[in-house]
């Protein structure tokens, strides 16, 4: 019997008979009670059934690792499809990937399937998991695949697209059911006991609205009962915090079909939050030497031809606007839409575009004057509204929209200034995150990959800019990582990813170094040597957009905003009609001190008033009764119901203004009783 030498995770080696499976070795290393779902053989993922014939290294992939949970999720998607086709024999499985929090599978011919049908499918999945069905990998020729999937046009389309002529692929079989797949998968359905189906939605085949509509079923799988429980409660918590729900409950924003999908209407309470945030950010921009500019919402097509946004990114933009006279002339000539589009693309007629980016406008402000090295760095900031065409299926609340206001700025700098300016951008983000109590965040530095032919600009310049980004990220003591291949073709970038209180990560905005646009617009400045030089641009919108950032903040705070951001800070509630005058005086004094206040001196009982006002999450309610009126005091009620009674009004006002001005993240004028 020939032997192979296998390197184990601890670095030692062991001899095994050739032909042993990866799974047998994992059991040898980890024992029978291991939590592994597959094996890593020489650095690549393999099924437990993989037969080993030569020297290699072997390691178990635990279901608790990122790689392991991915395999579990993908395997659970197979189990889902098996269960669905058992109950609905006509349903046709299409694709079923693992996703960030679980998995889904898209089915054709599964119409009228709703949330109420999930239970039966989930029950069937548990039944199959308990049966401990072996999951096998089978190599198939092209002809065999053609036969096996003959009655599923979706799988046939994938086979036709993905497989080179004459090449086979693999299927994974569990019992009578099989799916086209490269694997790896768990070796038995028993690994998929802890599975839960969560929701149903619709999707289009291949994400293409012109193709068939499919039914998408989502689910969660975890390695253990406990981890499933904690994941499910995190999902519950996330649902409660959903900004679309809270946005409605707290009356922060509105989306109206008649205005348009993905176009946010900021209602007064939400607009207050946005204004406070913008003022706060602007204050720091001013300190960092930024200058405010304003630019219009549209620009000529020629501008975007120069910048490269048109016609290349047409798909992600609203169609252009044609000049009025031209439109009338073309209509009289009987011009079709297709002809019109072609003429615009070719540059034969002029038109305007809703701006997809603020950069070209800011560039024109730069080039409106002769610039010298003494002017640099120039930093133009604008809360600039831009419009992008998102597919309607992609639109969601405030986080995926068609019109949004970026916290945008463009810095025009010399090469030597890149490092300092990138650093300044990150510092600004730190200040804002800290003020909002978002202390768990990281930055990703996007660099070139090894195929350097796709990047514009000289290699030495890139190295300088990449070093500047690395240096900035590492100098601030924050968590950061390098991401080769994530740079744009025109320069390296820094992304901000913030983790909210329930552990979800949100990608916000970026800082982007750009060698390309200064070239395209032929930007110049006069150097100290008297020669003309090309500036470098830095685009930065670190919070992404006000819409997205506010959406994230609503979820982060679960609607309980810090006092300085709360849409209404104080609600004054009177206990009876005897306090109406005192209530009005208090409200007036608060208002004139700049506090956002609401007064309820109506007839409801105090209990009812508290319930009615609590849903708006003011930082505090002031309860006014006889004692308060007589002594010129207030009783302060915190969000959790704790009270602080008999506080002199002036003392309260001082404390309140102190809390607002210092932007305390959690209202804390009422000491917690716990
Ligand atoms: Zn698969
Ligand atoms: Zn830009």
DSSP, total strands: 34
Alpha-beta classification: alpha+beta
Percent helix, as a range, is 25-40%
Low-confidence stretches: none
Radius of gyration: 31 Å
Count the helices. How many?
A: 20
* Ligands bound, unique: zinc ion
How are the strands of the biggest sheet laid out side by side?
A: 17-21-22-29-26-25-23-24
Strand content: 25-35%
- Report the major sheet: 8 strands, mixed
Mean pLDDT: 91
Distance between the termini: 70 Å
The shape is globular
Explain what the structure shows.
The chain contains 20 helices and 34 strands. The chain is α+β, with helices and mostly antiparallel strands and 674 residues long. Helix 2 packs across helix 3, helix 7 crosses helix 16 and helix 13 packs parallel to helix 14. The longest helix has 22 residues. It is globular, with a radius of gyration of 31 Å. Bound molecules: zinc ion (ZN) (2 copies).
Q: How do the helices and strands line up, and which of them pair or pack?
A:
Elements: E1 3-7, E2 13-17, E3 20-21, H1 22-30, E4 36-41, E5 44-46, E6 51-52, E7 56-62, H2 66-87, E8 92-93, E9 103-108, H3 118-130, E10 135-140, H4 142-148, H5 153-162, E11 169-174, E12 177-180, E13 195-204, E14 213-221, H6 225-241, H7 243-249, E15 253-254, E16 265-266, H8 268-287, E17 291-292, E18 298-300, H9 301-307, E19 321-322, H10 324-332, H11 337-346, E20 351-354, H12 359-366, E21 378-387, E22 403-413, H13 418-435, E23 441-447, H14 459-475, E24 479-484, E25 493-499, E26 505-514, H15 516-520, E27 525-526, E28 532-533, E29 536-541, H16 546-557, E30 570-574, H17 580-592, E31 597-600, H18 606-614, E32 620-624, H19 626-631, E33 633-637, E34 643-648, H20 649-661
Parallel strand pairs: 1-7, 17-21, 23-24, 30-31, 30-32
Antiparallel strand pairs: 1-2, 3-6, 4-5, 4-7, 8-9, 9-14, 10-11, 11-12, 13-14, 15-16, 18-20, 19-20, 21-22, 22-29, 23-25, 25-26, 26-29, 27-28, 32-33, 33-34
One zinc ion is lined by residues 74, 78, 172, 179, 181.
């Amino acid at each position: 019997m020939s032997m192979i030498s296998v390197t184990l995770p601890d670095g030692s080696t062991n001899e095994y008979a050739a032909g042993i499976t990866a799974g047998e070795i994992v059991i040898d290393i980890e024992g029978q009670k291991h939590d592994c779902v597959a094996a890593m053989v020489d650095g690549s993922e393999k099924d437990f059934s993989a037969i080993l014939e030569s020297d290699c290294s072997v390691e178990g992939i635990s279901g608790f690792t990122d790689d392991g949970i991915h395999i579990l999720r993908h395997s659970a998607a197979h189990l889902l499809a098996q269960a669905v086709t058992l109950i609905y024999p006509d349903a046709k499985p299409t694709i079923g990937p693992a996703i960030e929090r679980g998995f889904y599978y898209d089915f054709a011919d599964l119409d009228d399937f709703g949330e109420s049908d999930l239970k039966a499918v989930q029950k069937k999945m548990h039944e199959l998991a308990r049966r401990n069905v072996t999951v096998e990998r089978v190599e198939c020729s092209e002809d065999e695949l053609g036969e096996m999937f003959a009655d599923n046009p979706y799988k046939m389309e994938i086979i036709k697209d993905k497989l080179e002529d004459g090449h086979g692929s693999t299927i994974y079989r569990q019992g009578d059911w099989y799916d086209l797949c490269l694997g790896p998968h768990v070796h038995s359905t028993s690994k998929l006991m802890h599975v839960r189906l969560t929701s149903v939605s619709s999707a289009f085949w291949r994400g293409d609205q012109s193709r068939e509509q499919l039914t998408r079923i989502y689910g969660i799988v975890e390695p253990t009962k406990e981890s499933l429980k904690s994941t499910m409660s995190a999902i519950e918590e996330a649902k409660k915090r959903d900004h679309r729900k809270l946005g409605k409950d707290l009356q922060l924003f509105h989306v109206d079909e008649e205005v348009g999908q993905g176009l946010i209407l900021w209602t007064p309470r939400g607009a207050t939050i946005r204004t406070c945030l913008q003022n706060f950010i602007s204050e720091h921009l001013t300190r960092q030497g930024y200058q405010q500019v304003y630019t219009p919402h549209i620009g000529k097509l020629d501008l975007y031809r120069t910048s490269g946004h048109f016609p290349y990114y047409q798909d992600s933009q609203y169609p252009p606007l044609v000049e009025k006279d031209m439109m009338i002339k073309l209509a009289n000539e009987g011009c079709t839409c297709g002809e019109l589009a072609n003429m615009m693309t070719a540059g034969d007629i002029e038109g305007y575009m809703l701006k997809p980016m603020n950069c070209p406008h800011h560039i024109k402000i730069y080039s409106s004057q002769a610039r010298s090295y003494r002017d640099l760095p120039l930093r133009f900031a604008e809360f600039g509204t831009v419009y992008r065409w998102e597919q309607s299926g992609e639109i969601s609340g405030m986080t995926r929209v068609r019109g949004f206001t970026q916290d945008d700025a463009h810095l025009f700098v010399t090469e030597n200034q890149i490092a300092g300016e990138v650093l300044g951008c990150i510092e600004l983000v730190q200040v804002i995150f800290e003020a909002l109590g978002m202390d768990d965040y990281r930055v990703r530095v996007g660099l070139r990959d090894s195929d350097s032919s796709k990047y514009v600009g000289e290699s030495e310049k890139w190295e300088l800019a990449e070093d500047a980004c690395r240096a900035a990220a590492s100098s601030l003591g924050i968590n950061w990582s390098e991401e080769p291949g994530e740079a744009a073709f025109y320069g390296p970038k820094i992304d901000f990813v913030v983790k909210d209180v329930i552990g979800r990560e949100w990608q916000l905005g970026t800082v982007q170094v750009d060698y390309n646009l200064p070239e395209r617009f032929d930007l110049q400045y006069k150097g100290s040597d008297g020669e003309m030089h090309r500036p470098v641009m830095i685009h930065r919108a670190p919070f992404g957009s006000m819409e997205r950032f506010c959406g994230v903040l609503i979820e982060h705070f679960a609607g309980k905003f810090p006092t300085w951001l709360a849409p209404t800070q104080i609600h004054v509630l009177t206990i009876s009609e005897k306090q109406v005058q005192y209530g009005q005086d208090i409200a007036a004094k608060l208002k004139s001190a700049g506090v956002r206040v609401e007064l309820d001196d109506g007839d409801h009982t105090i209990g009812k008033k508290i319930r009615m006002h609590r849903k708006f999450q003011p930082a505090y309610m002031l309860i006014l009764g006889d004692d308060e009126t007589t002594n010129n005091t207030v009783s302060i009620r915190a969000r959790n119901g704790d009270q602080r009674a008999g506080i002199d009004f002036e003392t309260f006002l001082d404390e309140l203004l102190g809390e607002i001005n210092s932007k305390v993240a959690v209202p804390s004028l009422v000491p917690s009783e716990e």
